[in-house]
Amino acid sequence: MTCIFCDIVNKKIPSDIIFENDALVAFHDIRPKAPVHALIVPKKHVASVNEFTTEDAPIIAALMFAAPVVAEALGVKDGYKIAFNVGRKGGQLIDHVHMHVLAWPDSPEGKKEVAPI
Ligand code: 5GP
Ligand code: ZN
To answer: What are phi and psi of 57, to 5 degrees?
Structure first.
């Protein structure tokens, strides 16, 4: 199985990469829904959070550990949101698991409500 995010992972499609390791790639969202909006994508094609199996536990851990690394790289480690859309009714449009990293660094009180992403 391959998809647009597999193509980004494999550098067939260009992206603005923030961070990369053996397990994942983090890059800027092409249509940001917040002043800071990055995506963290596992290199393995897994369609959604629903498809994770126990053998994917290291990938899930890698996604979580990457969030503060990406937030720090973007200068927003003091305040950010992470989110996964799951399924069409959950707002997922690309069927390759991705963690959204969103931040509103210029909002003094932070973001209390989030528009759909
Ligand atoms: P979803 O709605 O599936 O949770 O999120 C998909 C996200 O991928 C959207 O925020 C969308 O803007 C972003 N996206 C779609 N195609 C591309 C692309 O080719 N490059 C990048 N960098 N982001 C993309
Ligand atoms: Zn894929």
So the answer is: -55, -40
CA of residue 33 to ligand 1 center, whole Å: 10
Could you give the number of structural domains in the chain?
1
Q: What percent of the chain has pLDDT over 70?
A: 97
pTM for the structure as a whole: 0.96
CB 69 within 8 A of CB 99: no
Strand 17-20 and strand 24-28: the pairing is antiparallel
CATH of residue 51's domain is: 3.30.428.10
Residues 6+ apart with CB under 8 A from 87: 48, 50
Catalytic-residue membership of 98: yes
